[in-house]
Amino acid sequence: MEFKAGKKSSIGTNKFAINLFFENSTRTKSSFQVAEMKLGMNEIEFEAKTSSTTKGESLYDTVKTEESIGADIVVIRHSEDNYYEDLVNNHDLKIHIINGGDGTGQHPSQSLLDLMTIYEHFGKFEGLKVGIIGDLSHSRVAHSNAEILTRLGAKMYFGGLNAWYTPEFAEIGPHMSVDELCQEMDVVMLLRVQHERLSAEENHNFSKADYFKNYGLDQRRVALMKPETMIMHPAPVNRGAEIADDVVECDKSYIFPQMANGVFMRMAMIEAVLEGDKASEEVADQKRQTVLR
């Protein structure tokens, strides 16, 4: 929150960052780019469709190449769950790796900015009721937020198609109707339907109108909410599917404030990584001075 309050930092001066996004992204990629620039970093341009990965280059070789030419930080979004485990466990990489989203696994930076937004509003997590509605099984945001909010003492609830309410979510919290969630929750978090991860049959049988009628958030459901209830969404938003057009920017909506907080949170993440480098360099300098004496 210090960056949001106006803190300035040039810790990234003369440092290089590269954002390896192998899946489409607007908010996360742009947010990291702005965060890097605000910290004084230089960005190395990368486009997956014109990179050597199209020629068969492995993710490791791509990351090692960027390390070799001088990149200090790499932010990666990849379709493979836990892609980072191979990079971290099986290779001696010195470049810092930040997970920008892995498959249907985790989305740590989104989760952190969501926590920041919730804490700004309530000043706590303990005892809050948080409902996540939508395509749970395919959502890395749902996985990250359900885990961390539970650890912080929030009570989790879920809504949407029963088929997406998998056993891992059933172990965390109950499934409820959207009307029930709107009446009881402190935070209502919506998710888009990830058509790119559904089967051809699932997409063929999907009806946007039916989905919105059964699970979408409209003004009638907003009226059921408590005065202090927050509406959140990691975006991209599919208006008229999981949320009505006139709800996206209603008084209870924190969708765009979430995006603004994303820059500050990602600045903090990058600063933490670079501060670690700085601390290591200072220790090394002290050791060298000791030897010289």
TrEMBL record:
Superkingdom to which the source organism belongs: Bacteria
Pathway the protein acts in: Pyrimidine metabolism; UMP biosynthesis via de novo pathway; (S)-dihydroorotate from bicarbonate: step 2/3
Keyword Lyase: no
Keywords tagged on the record: Pyrimidine biosynthesis, Transferase
InterPro entries named among the record's database cross-references: Asp/Orn_carbamoyltranf_P-bd, Asp/Orn_carbamoylTrfase, Asp/Orn_carbamoylTrfase_sf, Asp_carbamoyltransf, Asp_carbamoyltransf_Asp/Orn-bd
Assigned EC number: 2.1.3.2
N-terminal signal peptide: none
Aspartate/ornithine carbamoyltransferase Asp/Orn-binding domain ranges (all copies): 126-271
Enzyme class: transferase
Biological processes annotated in GO: 'de novo' pyrimidine nucleobase biosynthetic process; 'de novo' UMP biosynthetic process; amino acid metabolic process
GO molecular function term, any single one: amino acid binding
Catalytic activity: carbamoyl phosphate + L-aspartate = N-carbamoyl-L-aspartate + phosphate + H(+)
SUPFAM superfamilies, sorted: Aspartate/ornithine carbamoyltransferase
GO cellular component terms attached to this protein's record: cytosol
Ranges for domain Aspartate/ornithine carbamoyltransferase carbamoyl-P binding: 6-120
Stated role: Catalyzes the condensation of carbamoyl phosphate and aspartate to form carbamoyl aspartate and inorganic phosphate, the committed step in the de novo pyrimidine nucleotide biosynthesis pathway.
Sequence similarity: Belongs to the aspartate/ornithine carbamoyltransferase superfamily. ATCase family.
Protein name as annotated: Aspartate carbamoyltransferase
